[in-house]
Amino acid sequence: MTRLHDKYGKSVYLWGPTGRMFISADYDFIEFALSTSLILNKSDEYSFLQRWLGFGLLTSERTKWRKMRKLLTPAFHFSILQQFIDSFEANGVKLVEKLKKMDGKDIDIYRYITLYSLDVICGSSMGVAINAQEIEDSEYVKNVKLLCKIVAQRQNRVQERLSIFYWMFPNYWKERNAVRKIHNFTYSVIDSRRKLLNETSTTEEDGENCETKKRVAFLDMLLQSTIDGRPLTDDEIRQEVDTFMFEGHDTTGSAMSFALFLLANHPDIQEKALEEQKSIFAGNILRQATYDDLQNMKYLECVIKETLRLYPSVPFFARKTDKDVEYKGKGHG
Questions:
Q1: Chain Cα centroid distance, residue 83
Q2: 84-125 residue pLDDT tens
Q3: Which structural domain range is residue 171 located in?
Q4: In this model, does residue 325 exceed pLDDT 70?
Q5: What would you give as a GO molecular function for this chain, any one (predicted)?
Q6: What is the pLDDT of residue 148?
Q7: If you ran DSSP here, which 8-state letter would residue 15 be given?
Q8: Are residues 325 and 202 both part of a single domain?
Q9: Model's pTM, two decimal places?
Q10: What region, left, alpha or beta, does residue 207 occupy, with left being phi > 0 and alpha being psi -120 to 50 degrees?
Q11: Is residue 331 part of a domain?
Q12: Are residues 194 and 66 located together in one domain of the fold?
């Protein structure tokens, strides 16, 4: 793609196996595409995720996407995220201990960061611990990693892209088996979490255990939400939880890995980031971080933003239109 843009400019038309594609790296057009309500439907590539994720926020079409986006936005308010800082740190300590054992060795940092991300995302989305960093061969972790690999492979294999032929390939059957196991796990968590919420509600009504407000996991919010005047079904909840797990661990793992890569290659920047941490923690680098501490990490924030500029976790997104869309007086369709 870089060669095409170097040769033909920031925007090009291509004919591919799925039809005509308009590919653009023009900032103004991307801003237009992200802000207009005319280009909300996802491209066919997203269908490769539907067996696993169903029609959650990532894969749903325009009408459902709007409703779910409105419903889910409060779950990412800073007041909710603050509740999980201790979880982020506890899992971070496990990560650091594992990396200490690798001191002086060449390692694939992404492997370790991905397991950390799975622990954090699973804890904040479902309210359960999968201990991915301690039990790397757990069935859930293996199946999530397998599905990510299969989806990436299918996008790049012409013969597997066509649904009518896909069943003829081994990946189809591997995918079916992995999806079944992941769905069963998510449904079991939904069921147990619903029972726990009901028990907690009953206990609080009886005046017991009301001293502290418990953390609200993403799943808890879904279980207590309504859409079109009705509660969400287990299938709708499962789709959003699985989507959050996929999107959250993959993008976070990628961003953190590239940030560490860049810091390792720029020791002067790494030293400045370290000095900021020492300043914030004022001689007690091992104390637990607070939300205010995170707000004061201005230099580290710049490091992360520059990492995302150079190595975006999602380097491209795809949309499809069923009619011409006018941009700066020209039609695109």
A1: 19
A2: 898 899 999 999 999 999 988 999 999 999 999 999 988 888
A3: 53-84+108-246
A4: yes
A5: iron ion binding
A6: 92
A7: E
A8: no
A9: 0.83
A10: left
A11: yes
A12: yes
Tokens of 197: 């919420």
What pLDDT does residue 210 have? Answer: 43
In the structure, what pLDDT confidence band is assigned to residue 203 with cuts at 50, 70 and 90?
low
The SS3 of residue 223 is helix
Choose the final residue of a domain: 203, 227, 246: 246
Alpha carbon of 159 to those of 190, 244, 320: distances in Å? 36, 29, 22
Q: Any idea how long the chain is? A: 333
- Final residue of a structural domain among 246, 263, 288: 246
Output the domain CATH number for residue 164. 1.10.630.10
Distance of CA 300 to the CA centre of its chain: 21
CB 95 within 8 A of CB 102: no
Could you read off the pLDDT of 127-149 as tens digits, one per residue? 888 888 998 778 998 999 899 99
CA distances, 111 to each of 67, 150, 304, 321 (Å): 35, 17, 19, 37
223 shares a domain with 199: yes
**Whole-angstrom distance, CA of residue 232 vs CA of residue 242:** 15
Q: How far apart are CA 295 and CA 299, in angstroms?
A: 11
Q: Which two tokens stand for residue 321?
A: 């239109």
